[in-house]
Amino acid sequence: ETGVTQSPTHLIKTRGQQVTLRCSSQSGHNTVSWYQQALGQGPQFIFQYYREEENGRGNFPPRFSGLQFPNYSSELNVNALELDDSALYLCASSLQGFYEQYFGPGTRLTVT
Amino acid sequence: LAKTTQPISMDSYEGQEVNITCSHNNIATNDYITWYQQFPSQGPRFIIQGYKTKVTNEVASLFIPADRKSSTLSLPRVSLSDTAVYYCLVGETSGTYKYIFGTGTRLKVLA
Which of A42, A48, A104 sits opposite B97 (nearest CB)? Predict the structure, then answer.
């Protein structure tokens, strides 16, 4: 059984650029959630995808968008990067509904 | 959406029982409570989940009073490897999904 994987591990971008982060779900899981975790803070829920549609969203602006593919993998896209977007981005997969979420190791994004 | 509050940090000694409380005064009827453990540079790891009363698994117990406005994670006989940040998560499951993590409690286990 393969766990949740994320790529890349680290990324450095310049303010105003766009970034795409990728996540592969754990085998058998059909739901993916994305979180932003600033240094020293708890994870903040960005959104969740189920069957390729967004079915939940936190308080993040529209420049944070996502996709889920038929194989349940997912992408997080962030446009017009700001310095405050620097954080660890976590992906979590689960079965539909509020079940145990399995987190990946995260992608560390630095915006300069 | 329920906001959660936890103590910032706790210290304990090996072999002791540790209880970490999370306050979620505005929890909704459909919300579940989940606790996660996070080590540095890793994603959170599931510990336990509950809706009401008491839940126990092989690593922890979760106590939820009748009013569900708080929950307590109990770790029996902690070891040095339990040093981590512990988060409670309240999840909204009515239609659209939203999850609120607590501020996290940094547990340090001392020898």
Answer: A48
